[in-house]
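new request in #modeling-help
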Amino acid sequence: MSTQIKTYLELVKECDTLPYPDEVEEYTRLTSEYYHFRLKRSWGHADEDVRSSYTTVGYILPSVVASMPWTDKFHVDHSVQTVSIPWPTATTGDNAHGDYETLAIAEQLELAREKDSIPILRKWRAEPYRILGLEDRREVRIARAGSAVFGVHTMGVHVLGFCRDNDGGMKLWIPRRSPTKQTFPGMLDNTVGGGLTADEDVVGCLAREAQEEASLPEAWVREHAKPVSTISYFSIRDERAGGPEEVGLLQPATQVLYDLELPADMVPQPLDGEVAEFLLWTPEKTIQALHEGQFKLNSAVAWIDFFIRHGYINAQNEPDYLELVARIHRRIWF
Amino acid sequence: MSTQIKTYLELVKECDTLPYPDEVEEYTRLTSEYYHFRLKRSWGHADEDVRSSYTTVGYILPSVVASMPWTDKFHVDHSVQTVSIPWPTATTGDNAHGDYETLAIAEQLELAREKDSIPILRKWRAEPYRILGLEDRREVRIARAGSAVFGVHTMGVHVLGFCRDNDGGMKLWIPRRSPTKQTFPGMLDNTVGGGLTADEDVVGCLAREAQEEASLPEAWVREHAKPVSTISYFSIRDERAGGPEEVGLLQPATQVLYDLELPADMVPQPLDGEVAEFLLWTPEKTIQALHEGQFKLNSAVAWIDFFIRHGYINAQNEPDYLELVARIHRRIWF
């Protein structure tokens, strides 16, 4: 079997698939297709113009806009390709505007599921995500399954686990995903990871996932996981992430990264069926598997960041180093 | 004396001053002023259209374009605001095209100095820098003093030095710049840093600078400096970086970062007069000085990256964390 060897930069571009604005033609062609999903910018702002203006918080495929049975809480304008939620005139309470928008989105997704208008909503995942990019940081929630439909910026946690030999050499804990997972079955992954729901904080999320996916003691993980960086990217979903009905969905995401050094006698064990097995690999073997494309796309990027931070990938041995470091930390403007 | 406290994001924006393309109005207003400095894209490319096309490698201020006594090796087009170096028809040899461009730039800067056309060239710094962003990676050189005039993407090295107490607590080696330095006199800085010249590699550069600026043994530094990341940004120069004649110059730059853990008994000492004194500070004291704006702008960003990698700044304690990490790794598209 011949395996195609991919450079680090090629791996990053497979995850961060939206072109950059300086690639004018392709960027414009792609982004001009999408509808802007917009919420009001800032409820508490002193300036009325700001208060009443909208800010883009997601990108929706035209086919989704066409199929969605929009409720009257949404305003769809085909001439400028926007989908907006106006505020009702009388709203009171601390997070009243956010609560109103949360409800509007929930009703919309509920209706779409009832009518089976959007095939990808058949794979319903109810966990509430928080919509990012709002200036006033008010809380607006969306069910996980709906985040890809509305193309909002979501957030997750990736934990990179490793241990050290007696001689200081590093070995990495690499899980192989269960062959029955909905997305990227059988591929290699970050040690532990998961999406951040609206009801938890980052450390709570990673400690819970470490327990559920790898049987690691939650309290110990809380204490020892070390925040180190983020990765961020705009993915255009292809078939590997789901099925043909998801192709083209835009998913901007940030993953918060934590390093976790495990003692030699603490061995991660699959628990909830998400992971088939945990492998203990040298950096060299892991890097080889990366180049062979054996990793889930965003987990490949998380490990690349790990190898940059730990000096394995550097300016002396990687011709794309400057572009690589910048590209895995893409600025998402909402 | 009251001190204005700056957030990390405000500090980063003081260094990375060019707006992003999504801030459409300001970005367009600013970038449309500059002339594109262009070189041929790729000499070895099979496609004639690619070979004969140009790529932007810098941005030049209109006032500089107007004052420069352009030689006939340069083609200035005011209608589309470009300054280009066409290739002569007959050129042979491995780096012949690069050598031709290097010579053209050197002659141009020489002429401008003779005629005293560009005031900032009075502060002449001759070290050759390499122009980044060329697809074929051919070598084109420009004198350091010219890099800001042509607005090319330059590269440097920042070393973040620290030591550990017996109880594992971290202390950072912070130099105060000499009060007689041309730029940012008396301000706090990275432990060791410098621009990368065309005749050295990154590790050679940092080891040399560590010797010259901090009296650290070159061979020991070579062995122990650990590559960890980069920072990258588009600076629009203001008066702090030089004088009034430099205001508005665009300087895209990438600094390659290295962590350097020093043994407790290895104490950096000023040597070449660039540094007034080395301070040994706790992270808390350093963070306080950062917020007070005591650091040279790009060194503040390098320390912010250090504090992110070492967990001091994280998603749980910093509301701007996502934006911050992305923003200090700006993608420079040439």
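bot summary: The radius of gyration of chain B is 21 Å.
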